[in-house]
């Protein structure tokens, strides 16, 4: 039963992990956008073979890495899986707010970034998710586009498109100066009072949370200690009753202990004081036999 439960929990964990990973991947793919397109390349950007061809640029608008590998590019909506982007290369990983360029030269044998179709004016190009059904982004090319003129997104977070004679492959199309977060903060709070308030609020909030945490933990341990002491007071030691054999053995041991304290001896010495009015040093009577021989 325990093995079945463990296997069930392991299966649920694997399913949740796969679903969560797929959700993260899908969420990353939705951040991919067409950013810049060059239709007629006469004197513009060249590929690694030194050849010029039409090309398209895709941007990762998120602030985390996205792997475009496994997605599809096509110029035919009825054939969403026209060009599959291989997913076994690190070259397809787009850095945060990064860019990637594909050459539409109809020569996919030249590498991952060479499509099997050409770009045509007035037609649309599509980017599909790895399932081949979810449309991530699409753009329709202008009917007329002069040579070396690019059709580009005005900024990464904008949906407005324009044309320009200056191409910016693998870089942002908007090169205008943008105020940083620090500069915008200084504009709203030039003295720094707001920053001080925010910093102090964060510090005191953290201290308050720690205080409450340790207070609750301390109360819990005190309650446990009090419960243990109360249980010890009510708990009585069980009375032990000695059997008759044990009592008899104890009595016999005590009797022997007290009875054997005197050391009995076979010979008793008695010292008797003899009173004589004379000095025994010159007396000869003790040298004579009491019973002389006959």
TrEMBL record:
The keyword Transmembrane helix applies. The keyword Lipid biosynthesis does not apply. Its main location: membrane. Keywords: Cell membrane, Membrane, Signal, Transmembrane, Transmembrane helix. Residues 1-26 form the signal peptide. PROSITE patterns: LTD. GO terms for cellular component: plasma membrane. It is found in: Cell membrane. It comes from the Bacteria. GO terms for biological process: sodium ion export across plasma membrane. The chain crosses the membrane at residues 193-217. GO terms for molecular function: sodium ion transmembrane transporter activity. Residues 18-143 form the LTD domain. This is Na+-transporting methylmalonyl-CoA/oxaloacetate decarboxylase gamma subunit. It comes from Mangrovibacterium marinum.
């Amino acid at each position: 039963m325990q093995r079945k439960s463990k296997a069930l929990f392991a299966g649920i964990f694997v399913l949740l992990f796969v679903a969560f990973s797929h959700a993260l991947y899908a969420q990353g793919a939705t951040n991919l956008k067409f950013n810049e397109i060059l239709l007629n390349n006469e004197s513009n950007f060249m590929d690694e073979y030194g050849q010029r061809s039409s090309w398209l640029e895709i941007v990762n608008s998120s602030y985390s890495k996205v792997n475009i590998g496994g997605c599809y590019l096509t110029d035919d909506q009825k054939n969403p899986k026209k060009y599959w982007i291989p997913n076994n290369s690190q070259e397809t990983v787009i850095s945060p707010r990064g860019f990637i360029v594909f050459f539409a030269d109809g020569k996919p044998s030249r590498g991952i970034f060479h499509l099997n179709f050409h770009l045509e004016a007035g037609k649309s190009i599509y980017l599909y998710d790895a399932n081949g059904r979810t449309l991530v982004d699409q753009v329709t090319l202008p009917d007329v586009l002069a040579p070396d003129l690019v059709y580009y997104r005005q900024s990464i977070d904008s949906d407005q498109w324009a044309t320009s004679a200056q191409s910016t492959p693998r870089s942002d199309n908007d090169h205008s100066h943008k105020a940083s977060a620090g500069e915008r903060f200084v504009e709203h709070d030039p003295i720094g009072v707001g920053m001080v308030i925010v910093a102090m609020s964060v510090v005191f909030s953290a201290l308050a949370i720690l205080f409450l945490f340790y207070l609750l933990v301390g109360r819990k341990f005190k309650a446990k200690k009090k419960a243990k002491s109360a249980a010890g007071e009510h708990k009585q030691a069980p009375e032990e009753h000695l059997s008759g054999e044990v009592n008899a053995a104890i009595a016999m041991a005590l009797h022997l202990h007290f009875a054997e304290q005197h050391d009995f001896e076979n010979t008793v010495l008695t010292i008797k004081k003899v009173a004589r009015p004379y000095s025994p040093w010159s007396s000869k009577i003790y040298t004579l036999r009491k019973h002389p021989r006959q």
